[in-house]
Design goal:
alpha/beta; 8-stranded mixed beta sheet; 6-stranded parallel beta sheet; elongated; metal-binding; EC 2.4.1.250
Length: 456
């Protein structure tokens, strides 16, 4: 199927063509109200804790911006503590609905498939309290939500739009050493959702191609919409020196930062090993380098929650590495402003939202050349992309920044300019277009069924 391209604020999006719109009576219509599903992680949770991360930020920011363009959003998520209000207003036009499904605490993500039936029941109960046609469309996030969304969309007679965020086949193809492969049940589940969804939203063209290559997705159903960044929160503000003063960091130190969930997939160990190599080659760096790690253990990283601290001691750099628990978005923005450079040696990233956030704050990024990071980072202009995960390669790039403070400043300014094209308003406008296309395709199929039934 042919593609059409639209441009919003300088950002390129690719959407499937919908020639059928010309034959369908009535004007193209955006949905009034969307049921958004996030089974395994709540938009109210602190990113960087447990399974909360970039997807949480994505859902919160997208929902708020959709509401701002008159698309109401109701987010269904699993209740993880007792006593939560059944419904919480996150922002005007955005509700979070807590669904009871399984025990509140102590349930690992791997155990959640057994609770999908209970979660679906909770979603259906909420829907039953409304008049028919309350939800115009279902937008599910991650494969667990996709299965609930598939059933809900079928029952309500509305289209399903799904965002994978990460894919089992891709993760397994790029598995970090010592990490646990994604189970076959997830691969099967994702394959079913790809087939069932009316539209699939991919973060990048590469992710779109992976959906087609690994899951045989219909290219005509895949739309590319880049995630955004909150440009009001993540901005250079009052500069690096002021941020360092607020965080108690040395004014003139070289500070490469890791920010994210501590697990093999994110490879924070690569930064620590690179820092150790740098100090071995230039012992003077020990007096002027600080390596903050901002985040908590997650996923397979929970098996060895103290593993990174032990590695720092083993490498002889425990005095340089500072471990900080996950922080709120305002504080995270300060960490990015304070950093000389953000380091993202991930084995897999569907987009790498943290990279855009850091750049918006005026900080260059050194990242693995995987997933969406080549879109997020302009290699040689706003940071550097590294092939592979050899600590020596990262050390060589970081040594350039340590030796040339002017490079930090120059690339930081370019990074802030680059990030300006990734506002959430842009992402919301692109997502609304995908919704509109899905609605009209769905209406046309229903129209054709009625015609066939009439003539049959």
């Amino acid at each position: 199927m042919s593609q059409y391209v639209s441009r919003f604020a300088g950002t390129r999006h690719r959407y499937p063509a919908v020639p059928s719109l010309l034959r369908l009576p009535g004007r193209p219509r955006t949905p009034r109200r969307v049921a958004m599903l996030s089974v395994h992680t709540s938009p109210l949770h602190q990113p960087g804790t447990g399974d909360a991360g970039g997807m949480n930020v994505y859902i919160v920011e997208l929902a708020k911006r959709l509401a701002a363009i008159d698309i109401e959003v109701e987010i269904f998520t699993r209740a993880t503590t007792g006593g939560l209000a059944p419904v919480v207003e996150l922002a005007p036009g955005v509700l979070v609905r807590h669904v009871d499904a399984g025990p509140y605490e102590g349930l690992a993500k791997e155990e959640l498939p057994a609770q999908l039936c209970a979660f679906t029941h909770g979603v259906m109960q909420a829907w039953a309290g409304h008049r028919p046609g309350h939800y115009d469309l279902v937008h599910s996030h991650y494969w667990l939500s996709g299965h609930v969304g598939w059933l809900a969309a079928e029952r309500w007679g509305v289209p399903l739009v799904h965002a994978m965020h990460t894919m089992a086949k891709v993760k397994n193809a790029l598995l970090a050493e010592g990490d646990t492969p994604e189970p076959a049940a997830r691969v099967i589940g994702e394959t079913q959702i790809v087939s069932a969804a009316d539209r699939l939203i991919a973060n990048t063209t590469e992710e779109s191609d992976e959906l087609v290559r690994f899951y045989e997705a219909d290219p005509g159903k895949v739309a590319v919409v880049h995630p955004g960044v909150n440009l009001d929160r993540f901005r250079p503000a009052d500069g690096r020196a002021a941020a360092r003063a607020r965080l108690g960091l040395p004014k003139d130190a070289f500070i490469p930062v890791f920010a994210g969930r501590i697990q093999p997939l994110k490879a924070p160990d690569v930064l620590l090993r690179a820092a150790a190599l740098m100090v071995d080659r230039d012992p003077s760096l020990r007096a002027r380098m600080v390596v903050p790690v901002v985040g908590g253990p997650s996923g397979s990283g929970l098996a060895k929650p103290e593993g990174l601290q032990k590695l720092a001691a083993k490498l002889g750099i425990a005095d340089l590495v500072r471990f900080h628990p996950p922080v709120g978005q305002e504080r995270l923005a300060d960490w990015f402003r304070a950093a000389s450079v953000l380091v993202m040696p991930s084995y897999s990233e569907s987009f790498g939202l943290v990279a855009i956030e850091a750049q918006a704050a005026g900080t260059p990024v050194v990242a693995a050349s995987v997933g969406g990071l080549p879109v997020a980072v302009r290699d040689g202009r706003t940071g550097f992309l590294v092939q592979g995960h050899d600590p020596g390669d990262y050390a060589r790039v970081l040594e350039r920044f340590a030796a040339e403070p002017a490079l930090v400043a120059r690339m930081g300014e370019a990074a802030a300019r680059h990030a300006e094209s990734f506002g959430w308003d842009t992402a919301a406008a692109g997502t609304a277009e995908v919704y509109t296309a899905a609605l009209h395709d769905h209406r046309q199929r229903a129209h054709h069924r009625r015609v066939r039934s009439h003539h049959g």
